[in-house]
Amino acid sequence: DGGITQSPKYLFRKEGQNVTLSCEQNLNHDAMYWYRQDPGQGLRLIYYSQIVNDFQKGDIAEGYSVSREKKESFPLTVTSAQKNPTAFYLCASKGTGSKPLEAFFGQGTRLTVV
Amino acid sequence: QKEVEQNSGPLSVPEGAIASLNCTYSDRVSQSFFWYRQYSGKSPELIMSIYSNGDKEDGRFTAQLNKASQYVSLLIRDSQPSDSATYLCAVNFRGSTLGRLYFGRGTQLTVWP
Questions:
Q1: How far away is chain A from the Cα of B64, in angstroms, using its nearest Cα?
Q2: Strand order, beta sheet including B71-76
Q3: Across the interface, do A96 and B99 touch by the CB < 8 Å criterion?
């Protein structure tokens, strides 16, 4: 089945730790995105990428880093510089150009600082 | 400034009624529009996409787009308790870098039996 897989589903981080959230898709989509969602809030864009080895900062990139070494994979690292990382993190992918423009989401990773 | 606005609700309707969800956006020259449903604690699920003016129907869902007035709406006919969720409006503005979507904050819908 084609889809987007995020792991882990739940993640606990200690103060000062870096953690990496995984996102893999087999939809052959070019564009991939990371969003953060806080309770009662909309989706805020962290980083996005259209091609391998290229990515752009979104609206709230501080304290986060990403890589795009493969088309299928777009991992997000939450660094110790992110002061309030507790949130629901969502990865999405979509086609570009003449391909369908719908974006699809993974099941999300809920990150909690302990 | 690219903005997508939704009434946060909550919107409460009885079972069997029509639920009407509205969304306005800031840029007249916008390309594509999407409605997502998000159950509590889950990720958003795409339920409708619409690209041109008018209505688009899919089962109990109808999306309506009016580009001149810069609004898009979602009608849910014969609402069911299982429709209770937050509905997110998303817009792809023309010229947006890498085709990014802009999301509204969502409207919380409750359908009571």
A1: 17
A2: B4-6, B19-25, B71-76, B61-66, B54-58
A3: yes
User: What distance in Å separates the CA atoms of residue B113 and residue B111, rounded to the nearest whole number?
Assistant: 7
Helices vs strands, H then E, count in chain A: 0, 11
Q: Which of B36, B42, B101 to mutate to test the interface with A (most CBs of A within 10 A)?
A: B101
Q: A54-65, pLDDT tens digit by residue? A: 999 999 999 999
Kindly report the nearest CA distance between residue A83 and chain B, in angstroms.
23
Q: What is the pLDDT of residues B30-56, one digit of tens each?
A: 778 999 999 999 999 999 999 999 999
Cα of B87 vs its chain's centroid, Å? 6
Residue of B nearest to A34 (CA): B100
